[in-house]
Amino acid sequence: MTGRGSGKSPPGRQRPESLMMSWGYRPELSEGAVKPPVFLTSTFAFRSAEEGKAFFAEAYGLAPHDPKRHMGLIYSRLNNPDLEILEDRLNLWDGAEASAVFSSGMAAISTSLLALVPLGGVVLFARPVYGGTDYLLEHLLPDLGMSTREFAAGADAATVDELCRRLAGSGSPCKMIFLETPANPTMTLTDIEAVAEVAHRHDALCVVDNTLLGPLYQQPLGLGADLVVYSATKYLGGHSDLVAGTALGSRELIERVKLYRTILGTMLDPHSAWLLLRSLETAKLRITCARKNAQRVAAWLAQHPRVSRVRFPGLLTDAAQRRIYERQCSGPGALISFELADAGEKEAFRFLNSVRLIKLAVSLGGTESLVEHPATMTHADVPVDEQRAIGITPSLVRLSVGIEHPQDLIDDLDQALACLGDRQAAAAGPPPVNRGV
Ligand SMILES: *Cc1c(COP(=O)(O)O)cnc(C)c1O
């Protein structure tokens, strides 16, 4: 047994980074081990048949469950100490009442949507969203009888409200608005507070995928969102060595989502949960370092003659976008998209093939820096005209900045940009004054 069932609120003055080494775990219940063991067990012994009966009655909702206590341990598809400690700690970063951890970000998103969208209800979503989420919303949910409609990321509240009113008028009301902000790879920001208000006016839930900025720089629940989801594969895991996801929100919503998790079997495994516990101890250090590196790298890219445009929340020039940023984000994160000047796919590939320290790979949020080509990789299944409409050009490159020394990253980018040749530098001319979004 662990420190399960503590049920206390976190001490008010202590910050998440101070509690990541201890919260939700009591060493005296695990032979004094300072660190939580990996509970590699599928099932748990009851102390008596009566206890087994009581645990099942709680799990099946036949007896009232005290929400302040964890449920009795039965079987690892329902609950496991590593998952519970992890959920308790994740709650702290987002200021959530409850959370559920999943075998992937897509498991978190698909399980939450299946649990929370009623048949006949419409899901409105901001495009672009993550490719897997896009496929779920565009194909799988409609196959199951749920309708979905899109709007452009960055749309204002009036536009979303009008869409909701039209849907209500047509007899298929909007039941959920799904956002990803900043959008990937365009970095377009959507106003969470304004959209959540519209959702609530129409009796719909607002769900935010907060993977790109993470809980250090954006806390959607505090802005009125009902549920926040993450690919924990990215910044929360942070080492590119595991796949996991999480959903956080009110106890009531998370209980509904957990019922689906139990029946669909989309829970996280104890070993990955333990790895994530280890990752969370250094989350603030890693994410802060990557953000500082990204600010330096983005500023350097913005003045480079072979770079024509940098998309980074720390370099916004559009006034409306900057207002959203200042209201809802406390940092720009560490993901940068940029366009190579006077370049197409061929030149972009030459650049990607020339990086040495930086790895050519998809994914983001790890300790190592990664570059990729959205048009032919992460966003390859977006039709070309749509790609262009949202700003995914053949010269666009996405860079996830890691925790290396920033000068080494800049030197690597510099030599890779130099591989594009002098002719291009000449064609690009002198750097424009302003290169932000
Ligand atoms: C990676 C990612 C996902 C999917 O997460 P997996 O852990 O790969 O299933 C969802 N949303 C965003 C924004 C992502 O970057």
CATH class of the largest domain: Alpha Beta
User: Which overall shape is indicated by the principal axes computed on the Cα atoms?
Assistant: globular
Which ions and ligands are bound to the chains? Answer: pyridoxal-5'-phosphate
Helical amount: 25-40%
For the record, give the distance between the C-alpha atoms at the N and C termini, rounded to a whole number: 52 Å
Radius of gyration: 23 Å
CATH topological fold name of the largest domain = Aspartate Aminotransferase, domain 2
Strand-residue proportion: 5-15%
Number of distinct helices: 15
Q: Domain count, please report it.
A: 2
CATH architecture of the largest domain, by name, is 3-Layer(aba) Sandwich
Unreliable stretches covering 5 or more consecutive residues: none
**Mean pLDDT across every amino acid position:** 93
Quickly give the structural class.
alpha/beta
Query: Could you name the CATH homologous superfamily of the largest domain?
Result: Type I PLP-dependent aspartate aminotransferase-like (Major domain)
Provide the succession of SSEs: HHHEHEHEHEHEEEHHHEHEHEEHEHH
The tally of beta strands, per DSSP, is 12
Strand order of the largest sheet: 1-7-6-5-4-2-3
